[in-house]
Amino acid sequence: MTFEIERKFLVRGNGWEPLVTKRISIRQAYLSSNGKASIRVRINDGSTATLSIKSKPTELRRLELEYPIPVLEAEALMALRHGSAIEKIRHEVSWGGLKWEIDVFSGENAGLVIAEIELHDEKQHFELPDWIGVEVTGQRRYYNSYLVQAPFCTWTQQPAASA
After folding, report:
1. How confident is residue 57, by pLDDT bands cut at 50, 70 and 90?
2. Burial of 121 (C-beta count, 10 Å sphere; 0-12/13-18/19+)
3. What is the DSSP letter of 121?
4. What are the phi and psi torsion angles at 63 (to 5°)?
5. What pTM, to 2 d.p., does this model score?
6. Would residue 146 show up in a list of annotated catalytic residues for this protein?
7. Out of 71, 73, 105, 124, which could bridge 109 as a Cys pair, Cβ 3.0 to 4.6 Å?
């Protein structure tokens, strides 16, 4: 069984861009997102796909199960989604000995840029790069499963990335 320990932050500026080591185009949709878990289908660069089941976060930790599936099956599952699809480019950045993932959203969530870092345990120390803004871990509206229901373009007040 795999657990995910993840923290999320808004991004300010573009100082992270020269540090990018990899880019992945992601399209994903949610088949279910109830009070206990979400079921997600994701297609990466149009060439690989996964089906994921994630529990709702308890503190910073949550159960995450992910299985590879054929892209053709993922496309069929996308049609069964609830809400809109998420479109984003994920940029991987190495900083401070850790891997940061910076998601630059497009489509209905254009303008939203979120950095995520996965940790080994909830108390792991890490330093924040200067391009990291306000922490949004645990704020429901910044999670992809919420963005499919209430896209960023519908928010009446846009967040400020700086602390």
Report:
1. low
2. exposed
3. S
4. -70, 135
5. 0.92
6. no
7. 105
